[in-house]
Structures are given as C-alpha cells and as structure tokens.
Amino acid sequence: MGNHRVLLYFTLFFIIYMIWAQWQIEYGPKPVPVAEQTQQSNGGLLSSEDIPLAVTSENGKQSISPVIDDVAVSEKITVITDILEIEIDTKGGDVSRVVLRDYSVTAEAPEEKLVLLTDAKVNYQVAQSGLVSVNKGAAPSHNAIYKSERSEYRLAEGTDIIEVPLYWENNDGVKVKKVLTFKRDDYVIDVNYYITAGEQNWSGSDYMQITRSRPVEANSNAFIRTYTGGVVYNEEIKYEKYDFDDIADENLNYQLNDGWFAMIQHYFLAAWIPESGKDNLYFSRYNRNIDHYTVGARTSAISIDAGQEGEITSRLVVGPKLQYRLEETEPGLDLTVDYGILTIFAKPLFWLLNAFNDIFDNWGWAIIFLTITVKAIFYKLSEMSYKSMAKMRKVAPRIKKMKEQFGDDRQAMSKAMMEMYKREKINPMGGCFPILVQMPVFISLYWVLLESVEMRHAPFILWLTNLTEKDPYFVLPVLMGISMFIQQKLNPAPIDPIQQKVFQILPFAFTIMFAFFPSGLVLYWVVNNILSIAQQYVITKRIENS
Predict the structure, then answer these.
(1) CA distances (Å), 160 to each of 85, 157, 184, 191, 251, in order?
(2) Are 122 and 176 in the same domain?
(3) pLDDT digits (tens, 9 = 90+) for 289-320
(4) What angle (nearest 5°) sits at the alpha carbon of residue 22, between those of residues 254 and 294?
C-alpha cells in the first residue's frame, strides 16, 4: 500500500463508520427478553398482566385501556424551582409537563425554553406512577384522582426543598400520601408513597412508566442523528436499547434486580429509578389507537399490617444528560450519553475537553486546546508517518522513471521499487499505520462533540454563535477544504491517474460533507489540519535537504 493512499483509506473508513453507526441506530441488535417469572423470593407477585390498565386486545397484543378510577375532575399543580417548571396532574400524580429553565429550544430565541415532558398531543411524553394492590381497588393507579392542598409551589430564596403532598383514600380505610420532592439545582424528583393499611392487611407494590409518542421533529442530517427511544439497565444486562419499533412489535418482559429505565433523546432524558434492593419487572406497551409507546417497571410487593404504615420510594430524573451528575445519581445512568463502542477513548477525551473549558470558559477554545493536546500525544506517530511520506516524495521522480522503464511489466516494477525502498530505508507502510492507530481517537472525539449537552448552543467567537450547529457562512468547511488541498501538495503524488483524479475531488467532497457538520467538529478538523501541515512541512523540508 502506498503512502498516497492513506488519506483515501481514512476517508473511506470514516464514511463506512458513519453508515454503520446510522445502521446501528435504525437496525442494530435488540435485547432478547428474559423469560418471565411469576413468583419472587419475597412472595410478591410480578406479572406484566398485573400492570394497571394492561389488557389484551383482539390482535393478541397488550395495550392501554382508557378506564379511569374516579369520576372527579383532575387539576394541575404548578411547581417552579430554580431550574425546572413542572406541572403535576392530580390524576395519578403524574408529571405531565417539564420545562427546563436553563435550556432553550434554539440559540437564537433564548426566551423560548425547552419542553421535555408534555401532555399535549404533539411530542406527548408523560411520567406516570401508581400503586397496585392484591385486593382490587385498595390502591391508587396512575388514573386515580388525588387531592392537593395547593395549586402552586415555588422554591423561595433560602429554601432548598419543595415537597408536594397528594392524598388518596378509599372506603376500606386505605390511605395513601404521595409526596413529590424537588431540590434546588437538581433534576432528580423523589417520589414517596406513605401507605396506611385499613382494617385488613395491605399487600402491593408500585409501578412507574414513561409514555410518549414518536418525536415529530427529527433531525434530518444523517451525520448528526442520535438515538431516541427506550433503554433498560441493570448490572446483569448492562445497557439495552428498546426503540419504538421494538415496543410496537413485542412487549418487553425483564425480571431484573435493581436497575432503571428511561426514554432518551439527543441531549436529554426522562428516567425512573425504582427503590434499590428490589426485584423489578421491566415492561413495555404499545397503544396503536393513539400511537403511544410505554416503557415501565413494577417492583416486588411489600406487606403492611392492618392499621400500620409502610413506605415505597422511587426517583424520577428529568433533564439534560450531564455526565458527571448522572454518574453521581445512579450507576450506569451516564451511559445514556451514548459513545458506543469507543467509550473507552471518548470518556477521557470528554474529561480533557471539560477541563479546558473550566480554564477558558469557552468550548471553542477548549476544542482548540484539546486538538493541540491530542496532536502532541500522537506527535511521534505523526512524525513517523510524515517522514515516510517525505521520503516517498523525495524518490517520486525515480519511481516515475521506473514506470517509464518497465512499462506494463508490473512484476519487474514492483521488484525494482522494493529494492529501492530497501536501499533508501523506506517503509511503504510507515505512513499508514500511525494514522490507522489514531482513527479510533478521531471517531471518539466526533461522538464526544456530538453527544455532550454541555456544549449545546455554546458560542465561540465572531460569527460562530453555536458550535452544535453548522457554520452559517460555511467559512470553517471552506478552510477545512483548503487545508486538505495543501496537505495533498505536501504528500507524494499518486502515480496512478485514477488515484490522482480521486485526490483532486476529495477536498471538494469533504468541504460539501463538512458543511452540514456541527461547527465544533469542523473546528477540530481545521485546527488538526493546520497543525499537521506545519509538522509535515518542517519534516518534509528536513528530509529533502538531507
């Protein structure tokens, strides 16, 4: 393989990887459901058939029934913290609307805040939870109507916690107090059930679920598409995706200890974390009548003696996928920032990028200094590559004469070239291997810049007001194309006329392709190319003058 082919192979590798990554999002392998168990060690029954409102339809698939437990009209409770604006529906105590006060829909309209959960018809997504009792009617499902003391709660100055209590009671004396707790600068909502048994012993469990429609606004750029759908995690199965098509095709039934589940999208997530130490049934449902998709979990049952009180807890996470916060919240939750198979490289790169941002307080400069650092780490490998290319460039006239001398005798031509390489101490693979080694780092950095919500809507300088969007004036893509052209001039020219034409097209092709990339990614490539040109120029001149 000649050194002049290195860039071409790298280009093909990158394009093939992008196609593969997109294929994984759409058609990648799906989790295999675990055989459903009906009896848990603690005696509590767990079954997907027992999930409230889960009924079998005529086509054999399970869907959600619209039955409502109470005839009372529900109301909305508004909760405003420093970072969240939330609506709680007294029907089920559902979290029916979440507005992220620190995140806007677009960088151009910062006053229009991002709505993560909503019970509106478009982009419907609601976090629901409830209780299931062995005795029918002795527990409030997510369709039960609770009573509330107030209709609005605000986090006041000097206060760090808001508690929103909801009350439910039935004719048999069973009382339930559902408390949702919000904390300052926290995207985690604690959900506690305080259950007082009536005249009889009470046995039951809680369940939680996220129901949503397919997103209406999908990113049409194939180079920046990311996964939207359900995920399930525990230490046994690790991180499994379960997208909308999976939910529509087959009901999920996982019997797992601990863990969590979520509906994720680019930059943001809604996740339920059941109480630790419990066996949970993770399930899914599809309501084809209204095209709603549900992922949920039901915990193993507890027993409460007559007249006594018991407690069941869970946590709801609604907000941005801030990696370090997710790590602290629950094991594995940071995996929702999906770097794929290159996580081992991507995590250190994000740590370094974040460290530079702490210094410069600007993600653009952080990308530039990250690029310089990565270039320095691979300096010796790059030096090997450029030395090999410089030597190939130096002997290029002799190779051209050999071609004229041997004509179509490829065997003789190859033998003469290998003898020359041996005399001149040239390794024809020397220019290829160092770049192949760096490919995982380049691809990892692509996913770091693409997946990090910390960089969302981040400005740089001058016209670059949003590093997660394409360059509005295409200045960076053009600079990237020019830098590629200059690099080609420093490389040994291909002898094959077809390869010459391909190399002439590459800078234009990459300019067009990178025109639709987030400008932060293009900034990395431009800086990397400029550093590479400087290094290669010095090494080439040194070799040519020796």
Answers:
(1) 15, 8, 5, 17, 40
(2) yes
(3) 999 999 999 998 899 998 899 999 999 999 99
(4) 30
